[in-house]
Design a protein that fits this description.
globular; mainly alpha
Length: about 240
């Protein structure tokens, strides 16, 4: 594993890859986002029960999925770094934290907006909402810790350990609606089928893919910044500055 990462994910190659990948990924993401937004706002009919407010779920649901997937990615990257000490794994971890924080914040914000007309309140200490709020705090903690140490190695070790420990919250978020009697509704899409009308279902994966591409572009830019911030390769830095 270490030999593979060391051979194919050296910093120079990763930096050059994202130089080529960031712009196309951003364009694809923005086009997908505009398409999904158009479908959700202008094409799809209002929901029979929730009326117009249900449209915010086209941001809420993909953001929720990505907030959890990104944290799993953090934990995996942290594990790889602790076991094989691959520098690129620590860079991946640090580059994804802020993205996960934004998506988790979006989940809480859009959920509150949806909750007011649906539940009659912006916030309840429901099991799903509370565990998601804890995830938000975890992201803030990791973001604060990564810049709290003068040594990158020390920061990477601590952030990796805490990311792995904090991953226990992901199954709690996922299954909280099944384990406890919560106000939050259970999953609308499961392996046994979907409770969402098929007419409304196709816009969700488009939005999810769009946000994924946009996230990848931001992730790539964060990686480039991290590489330059940590790099002693002055030749590469000069090449970047000189275009």
């Amino acid at each position: 594993m270490y030999q593979y990462v060391a051979k194919y994910l050296v910093l120079n190659r990763v930096f050059r890859f994202f130089e080529k990948a960031i712009f196309p990924s951003l364009i694809i993401g923005l086009i997908g986002f505009l398409l999904a937004s158009y479908l959700a706002i202008y094409v799809l009919p209002a929901d029979a029960e929730q009326k117009e407010i249900y449209r915010i779920l086209f941001i809420h649901v993909p953001s929720a999925i990505l907030s959890e997937l990104i944290y799993i990615f953090l934990a995996v990257s942290g594990f790889i770094y602790l076991v094989w000490r691959t520098k690129i794994s620590a860079i991946f971890l640090n580059s994804a934290i802020s993205i996960g924080l934004v998506f988790t914040g979006l989940v809480l914000l859009t959920g509150s907006i949806w909750g007011k007309p649906t539940w009659g309140t912006y916030w309840v200490w429901d099991a799903r909402i509370t565990s998601t709020f804890i995830l938000f705090i975890q992201y803030i903690g990791l973001l604060a810790l990564r810049s709290s140490f003068s040594s990158h190695q020390t920061a990477d070790q601590i952030v990796s350990i805490l990311a792995i420990i904090g991953a226990i919250n992901i199954p709690i978020i996922k299954f909280s609606v099944d384990w406890w009697n919560t106000l939050h509704q259970s999953a609308s899409i499961t392996t046994s089928g979907s409770s969402i009308d098929s007419e409304m279902l196709y816009a969700l994966p488009i939005m999810l893919l769009a946000l994924l591409f946009i996230s990848f572009a931001i992730f790539g830019r964060n990686i480039q910044f991290e590489i330059l911030n940590r790099s002693s390769n002055t030749k590469m830095i000069k090449e970047v500055l000189n275009g």
